[in-house]
Each structure stands twice: as C-alpha cells, then as structure tokens.
Input
Amino acid sequence: MKKTAHWICHTHVFRSDEYECSNCGETVAKPKKTCPNCGCTMRGSKGDLGWVDEMEAIDAFFED
Ligand SMILES: [Zn+2]
Output
C-alpha cells in the first residue's frame, strides 16, 4: 500500500511559493505527483492550500 500525503502551500511575499510535504516536510518549488524525498503519492487537493499558513508567514516576516 502506497503512502499518501499532500502539499502544504507556503506563500511568500517576496519570493516564490513553496510546497511542503505533509509527511516529511520536504519543500519544493513546484508540487509534483510524488514527494522526491519520501516518495509519498500526493493528493493534489487545492482545498488544502493554506491561507492560514500565508498569514503566519506574513506575521513572521514583520516580526523579524
Ligand atoms: Zn515527503
């Protein structure tokens, strides 16, 4: 049985978006069908793309 995971979208204000593997935390510039690090099959649900993550990223930026 194959493992599955999904990409967590991290939107950055001044750089390109990144996608983080929900299983291993690997980040890639573009989402792929499988994670290059852990080999999980990705379910490409755009509903998982997180505006919450985006807000956290902006908060972190201004605190820095
Ligand atoms: Zn992974």
In short: The chain has one helix and five strands. The two ends are 43 Å apart (CA to CA).
